[in-house]
C-alpha cells in the first residue's frame, strides 16, 4: 500500500507539473512555487443545476483576476437570493415549526474558515460566514449569536419565508407526516462551490436551508468544515450535497481531500466517499449524497450515491451541466 501510495503521489505530482509545462525534476518544489512560472487556468465547479447561474457570477470575478474566495462568495450569493431554489437561502423550505434556518461556510487557500449555522432572517449566510472568518478568532457562530453578529456587521433582517414555501409547509403540516424530513424535493439541495483562481489558489463555500421540515435546531453538514466543505491549497478541495447526517458521519469532504493527497483522482476520491456511506450506513429513502472535488492540478470529479445528481463546471470559457455517475439507480 505504501508503495502504491508513494507511486500515485509521485504520479499526480508529475502530472500536475506536466500540466504546468514543468520538468519532472524537483516536482514538489515547483508545485509549491509554480505561481511565478505558470499561467493557471481558472475554473469553478458547483452542485446541481442552480450551479450554472452561480458559476456565471463566480466566473465574472475570476476573469478579472479576482480571488477564488471572492468568486465562491459571489457565486453562492446568487443561489441564496433566488426564491425559486427551495433548498438554499431566500425561498428555502422551513423547519417543522415554519422557520427558515440557514447553514453556510467558506474556506480559503490559507486554511482560514468561517461558518454559521441555525441562522435566521439573513439573506446571505455565506457572507456572514466570511465575516466570521475574517473578523473573529472563531470558526463557527450559531443561532442568535450568529444573528447578533450579522446585525452588528451591517446585515439586515429579512423575512426569508416566501408565500410559496409557507404554502407547501402548511400542506405538509396538514398531512402530519411521521417523518419530518425531505431531501431533493426538486432535485437539488445545497449549493457547494469550489474555485481555482488565476494565481492557482483554491477556495470553497457552501450554503443551504437544510432538510425540509427538519427538527427545529437541526444542523446539517454544510456549515461543518470537513463535512460539507474542505480546502487544502496544497492538494485540492471538496464539497458535499445530500443528507447532512450521512455526510457528517464520514467527514466526507475532508476524507476526499485526504484521498486526493494520497494519489486518488477527484472522481475516484468522491466515489470512495460515497461507497463508505453505503457500507457504513443504513440505506433509507432519505439517504442520498454526492460530492464534487478538484485537485491542485485543476482536475475535477464528482460521484453520487443515487441517480439524478448534476454538477456545473465552468472551465475554458464554457459553463456546462454534467450528469454525475452514481452507485444506485
Ligand atoms: N446537505 C444539506 C443538509 O443536509 O443540510
Structure described in brief:
It is built from 10 helices and 13 strands. It has 329 residues and is of the alpha+beta class. The chain has one domain (21-328): (Glycosyl)asparaginase (Glutamine Phosphoribosylpyrophosphate, subunit 1, domain 1).
Can you offer a commentary on this structure?
- The longest helix is centred in the first third of the chain and has 18 residues, at 2-19.
- This protein has 329 residues and is α+β, with helices and mostly antiparallel strands.
- The chain contains 10 helices and 13 strands.
- 51% of the residues are buried.
- The two termini are 32 Å apart.
- The protein has a single domain (21-328), classed as (Glycosyl)asparaginase (Glutamine Phosphoribosylpyrophosphate, subunit 1, domain 1, 4-Layer Sandwich), CATH 3.60.20.30.
- It is globular.
- Glycine (GLY) binds at residues 189-190, 208, 210-211, 220-222, 241-244.
Q: Order of strands across the biggest sheet?
A: 4-3-2-6-5-1-11-12
Rounded Rg: 19 Å
Query: For the residues shown, what is the average pLDDT?
Result: 88
Give the ligands present. glycine
Quote the CATH topology. Glutamine Phosphoribosylpyrophosphate, subunit 1, domain 1
Strand content: 15-25%
How many domain modules? 1
Q: How many beta-strand runs? A: 13
The N- and C-terminal alpha carbons lie at a distance of 32 Å
Share of residues in helices: 25-40%
CATH uppermost class: Alpha Beta
- Class by alpha and beta content: alpha+beta
User: Secondary-structure element order, as H and E?
Assistant: HHEHHEEHEHHEEEEHHHEEEEE
The appropriate CATH architecture is 4-Layer Sandwich
> What would the principal axes of the Cα set say about the shape?
globular
> How would you name the CATH homologous superfamily?
(Glycosyl)asparaginase
Low-confidence stretches at least 5 residues in length (pLDDT < 50)?
1-37
Main beta sheet strand tally, sense and closure: 8 strands, mixed
What is the oligomer described by this structure? single chain
Amino acid at each position: 500500500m505504501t508503495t502504491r501510495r508513494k507511486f500515485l503521489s509521485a504520479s499526480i505530482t508529475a502530472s500536475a507539473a506536466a500540466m504546468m509545462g514543468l520538468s519532472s525534476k524537483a516536482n514538489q518544489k515547483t508545485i509549491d512555487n509554480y505561481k511565478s512560472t505558470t499561467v493557471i487556468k481558472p475554473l469553478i465547479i458547483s452542485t446541481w443545476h442552480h450551479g450554472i447561474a452561480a458559476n456565471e457570477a463566480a466566473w465574472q470575478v475570476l476573469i478579472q483576476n479576482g480571488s477564488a474566495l471572492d468568486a465562491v462568495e459571489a457565486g453562492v450569493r446568487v443561489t441564496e437570493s433566488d426564491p425559486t431554489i427551495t433548498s438554499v437561502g431566500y425561498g428555502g423550505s422551513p423547519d417543522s415549526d415554519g422557520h427558515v434556518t440557514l447553514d453556510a461556510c467558506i474556506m480559503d487557500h490559507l486554511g482560514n474558515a468561517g461558518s454559521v449555522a441555525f441562522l435566521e432572517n439573513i439573506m446571505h449566510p455565506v457572507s456572514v460566514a466570511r465575516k466570521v472568518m475574517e473578523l473573529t478568532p472563531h470558526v463557527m457562530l450559531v443561532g442568535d449569536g450568529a444573528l447578533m453578529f450579522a446585525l452588528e456587521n451591517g446585515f439586515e433582517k429579512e423575512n426569508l419565508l416566501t408565500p410559496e414555501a409557507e404554502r407547501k409547509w402548511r400542506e405538509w403540516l396538514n398531512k402530519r407526516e411521521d417523518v419530518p424530513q425531505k431531501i431533493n424535493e426538486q432535485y437539488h439541495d445545497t449549493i457547494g462551490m469550489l474555485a481555482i483562481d488565476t494565481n492557482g489558489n483554491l477556495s470553497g463555500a457552501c450554503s443551504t436551508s437544510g432538510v425540509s421540515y427538519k427538527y427545529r435546531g437541526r444542523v446539517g453538514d454544510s456549515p461543518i468544515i470537513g463535512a460539507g466543505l474542505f480546502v487544502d491549497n496544497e492538494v485540492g478541495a471538496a464539497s458535499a450535497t445530500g443528507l447532512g447526517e450521512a455526510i457528517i458521519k464520514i467527514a466526507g469532504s475532508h476524507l476526499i481531500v485526504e484521498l486526493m493527497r494520497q494519489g486518488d483522482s477527484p472522481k475516484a476520491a468522491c466515489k470512495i466517499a460515497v461507497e463508505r456511506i453505503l457500507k457504513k450506513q443504513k440505506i433509507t429513502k432519505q439517504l442520498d449524497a454526492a460530492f464534487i472535488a478538484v485537485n491542485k492540478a485543476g482536475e475535477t470529479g464528482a460521484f453520487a450515491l443515487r441517480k439524478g445528481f448534476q454538477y456545473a463546471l465552468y472551465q475554458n470559457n464554457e459553463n456546462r451541466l454534467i450528469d454525475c455517475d452514481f452507485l444506485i439507480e
